[in-house]
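Instructor's aside before we start: the two examples that follow are unrelated to each other. I chose them only because their records fit on one page, so don't look for a connection. First example below.
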Amino acid sequence: MSTIAILAGDGIGPEVMEQAKKVLHCVADKYQFPITLKEYDVGGCAIDNHGVALPQSTIDGCEQSDAILFGSVGGPKWTHLPPTEQPERASLLGLRGHFGLFCNMRPASLQQAMSQLSPLRADISAQGFDILVMRELTGGIYFGEPKGRKDAGTEQEAAYDTMIYSRKEISRIAHLAFQAAQKRRKKVISVDKANVLASSILWREVTEEVAKQYPDVSLEHMYVDNAAMQLVKDPAQFDVMLCSNLFGDILSDICAMITGSMGLLPSASLNEQGFGMYEPAGGTAPDIAGQNIANPIAQILSAALMLRFSLNQDEAATAVENAVAKALDAGHLTRDLLPAEKANTALSTSEMGDIICQFINAEQGS
């Protein structure tokens, strides 16, 4: 029996999570493996119910689970709080730090059926792309100390953050990037700013040392500013992108946007023991929350990643991914994937979940 902690969060989180739960029950029934889903508060709703964005009861529930399926957190209701108490920082950084989720995997591919959605020039999007961003998630400038402010209220007032990386932090994410590349197209592009930053010089040195253990994988270094330009100019050249926390945060969002929709992209965050938290790339979209029109695919594909990496249910994961692809190819689209003149043909959030379950059940297999 696999136990999954469900942290639906705020905004559209509960709506799209409902469809991911529906799909999980569907594949669990089809492929005959038992799962238990247990729900816990996180983010803004946790602040409302418990006074903090990441209550101890939620941490305890996650510790007793085999994986975390995370929704989205935050919204205008909680922006008045101090930054460290706001839903995004308090819950996401808290969970990443508590569970040591150092490896963030963000796949971004442009499916043929969706090529018209990409903001890239048509001749570029027609080439398609399949990129995996491997982002170091618990180090770098987001966690480095010291950080803070000084000389408040004076002309000398300043704020500061520290970008720091250890050899161990770089090495462990680099190993996973090369291992991922071995299962893909055997190419790693490591992103840094070694012409300016001392931490990037070490990043490049350690990555080159790790690369020697993977002779079947090619390694290329690319400055982060050039990487951003190349993603727009020729995204097909990328296979696995190895990034620090800050650079990965920015570049993975570029990858997401050039696919045409944030609503299609999942992510996985893993620790050294293989425990993972899985979440969609997009946000809470409070402007459409409660309307049953949000795209649930990113949440559903996050559940597929969970099936593969935490529950060792590869066949079920593939079935979910295939069902999503078939639904899109058949023209079953939510509003975000359609031009304004075709908005009246859009599926609702729940209808998209139902369609994906239908394709799963139609899949040949056990």
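Example two begins here.
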Amino acid sequence: MRQHRILALLGSLAAAAGLIAGCSDDGGDAGPVGAQSSAASAGPSVSDEVTVTRIDYPTLDGTDPEQNWGDLYLPAGPQAVDSTRLVVLIHGGAWQSQLGADLFDPFARDLAARGMAVYNIEYRRLGSGGGWPTTFEDVSQALDNVIAIDKRFPQLETTDALVVGHSAGAQLAVWGGTRHKLDPTEVGGNPKFRPTRVVSLAGPLDMVQAVRNGDDRIVAALGGTPGQVPERYASVDPIQNLDPGTPVIAVHGTRDTVVLPSLSQRYVTALKNENGSGRVVLIDGEDHGSIVSSNSVAYRQILDIITEGSTKTVDQLSE
């Protein structure tokens, strides 16, 4: 155990003892789930309900406070140092600005209710200042900010963290879990924080094949076709950046016509051919959007898959 972090946690617990659960630093009512701004005092608090803290992260250029942030959801009750497993969520939306991190809010709340810490990140996308390379730089910076968050909330266990993404966010999640394989000069290279497990929800995990299938959203996100900017695809296409040491659960709805299930199957086959740990989970009747809807009949199943992805051993994840 780290003595200085234990002292920091004890000090924050004492400071939090007189606070009303769910209230921000200025005493305002934060609603049913407590919300705190990034200006909140350092260190974790103790609450009898899930709390949410918004945390800005630095970017390489042109930070947008409306988009460069992540919400940290913490479970209720006291948490010992290094005791609370971290799940990072990266929302999808074709790398475009129509959808945001609120898509994953139900998942974040319910996972926190199961005892996990959840970091749900927002980033710049096409139509709101993103695209190549900004979107990818933002996600890498948001992930690397976990190091600073860990110092502020010492109950987090970040050495074996799970990253989960949907659609475009799934591509970013798998890429985020394998950035350590990149050359330091590449976008996202030389990471400070490495998620060690990945759950992909309807992810285009073979981006070149997806473009062959007619996916022009990928072309827009990367600023060209595989023939025009092959080095970009080589750097961020999950199937071109396999890491046998990073287990991946690829979940897909059988009715998905936006991102075909075969892309998950191709990726897992390639990962296993490299002696990696991968598994495809096909969910009958779900399409591209319903797989992340809290109204879906499969919602609890997805929650269970994410929970297992966070808590099971690597051998168990491949079963």
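The CA atoms of residues 43 and 152 lie 5 Å apart.
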